[in-house]
Write a structure and sequence with these properties.
Shape: globular
Order of helices and strands: EEEEHE
Number of strands: 5
Strand order of the largest sheet: 4-3-2-1-5
Radius of gyration: 13 Å
Protein name: Methyltransferase
Strand content: 25-35%
Length: 70
């Protein structure tokens, strides 16, 4: 049995119409996933940068989503 523990962190982005994306912690940083896109948007060094990237991907006129850790 190993003493190592894997901690996974996920933040769900919720906008007026429901879930608009999610952010997942990796060993290297944070990855953004959006249901409207097949691929991830790259890896970001901090959670704040990942949140900004997700918001930018929502497009002009979008409201800033609420982020909930799961």
């Amino acid at each position: 049995m190993s003493d190592q523990t894997t901690t996974r962190q996920t933040w769900v982005a919720i906008g007026p119409s429901g879930t608009v994306g999610s952010i997942h912690r990796t060993h290297e940083g944070f990855v953004v996933r959006m249901p409207s896109r097949d691929a991830t948007g790259g890896e970001y060094p901090t959670l704040a940068v990942a949140k900004s990237a997700l918001f930018a991907a929502l497009g002009p006129g979008a409201e800033y989503p609420e982020f909930h850790e799961h």
